[in-house]
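Now for our target.
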Amino acid sequence: MRVLLVSGEYPPYMFGGGATFMYYLSRGLADKGVDVTVVSMKFSKRFSRDIEVEEPNSRLRVLRVAVPVYLYPRHEVFQLVARPLISELIKEHDVVHLNTGLYYPFLRDIVMKSGKPAIVTIHGDPILVYKLLLNLHLSPSETMYGLLHMGESHTALKKELKELHPVFVSKSLYEAMRSKYEFRRYSIIYNGVDFNYIDKAVNSKPKTRFYEVVVKAKERGYKVLVYPARLHPIKNHSTLVKILWFLIKKHDPRILLVLIGDGVSRQSIIRLAKKLGVSKNILMTGKQPYDETLRILSLADAVPYVSLYEAHPLALIEALCLGKPVIAFNLPYVIEVKDICTSKAYPCSLKLVDSIKKFIEELLYELSFDGRLTNRKMFISQFGLDHMTSTYLDLYREALISMELQKPSQKLLDDNAPIMRGDIK
């Protein structure tokens, strides 16, 4: 089988979890004997027809087209630039798999005319995200960025859900999208991570000075909070900065907040930290290589995941895998994770709260909250790379058979499994 994966983001050019998802999926499929081609972007100072080719192994090749870093919306620019390449590649592949928002307006016709099974993974609800953003005090640039992102995503989703086979990354996302959009076929597949890779990355040599800074802070008695998330208003960094100020004033100045990522909220975070006088207690690393992110995350005393919305945060899964206490709001997907991983015999190290500030304070200065993942076997069975890639591979095969027979996919719905497929009637 030959699979074409199309994703605007792919390491090292990352905006969020979509890049990590595609990174894992491409390698997992290749390890199972699938010939995989990834088409993604690389940032450039100008337009260029040169295509950067990377071949990590005999089954996987990554093709990157140059997209000027100053042009937005990047997903549309990427589609326009990559269209000729994708048009040719579709002919030699059996299945086309797109990431959210990459179907409209410049790829739709070539995908529809190809006659090949087309899958799209849906990573979030842009309408809900923008409604949440409207309740925040945003700068004009942040408001405009959010509006543009919602508009492009909404437009793409209307077409993707109707015409392609959508895969939702959580049950809660499926329920939310079903109330807003029309679609018939669907699957639900949780994103997975390579737990073996995480273990190896943590035990390998650090690549940046940031890791050493955190190590030295811990040696001096600092409490370390690590939050790996793009700097976007929906990730709610401002709340975390205010909590940091509160903890320093009430308890001890020896606390370090490490923010891994970059984005449109960077300057507003810097201004708020300066205003509150906590700039010296914040380490902003910017975007980091994936393995370095994992190494820094492994040093955390706790991971406060203060995001206001998540459909499937891979960073949360990675933190739990590393045995870190994770504190998060009572969001639908986070509740899903805890329900899957928790039983009377195996408590999960994921704490769901309404008041993040109160529990972070208790965790750092009062409680003994064990972050060890006691039910690791169950955790891997639900969120491991092997399970995710095997499930997608089954979906590809079913789609090929269905297309050959020119019949809709047979309904299959299992409420106890992390994949659900079906037809909506």
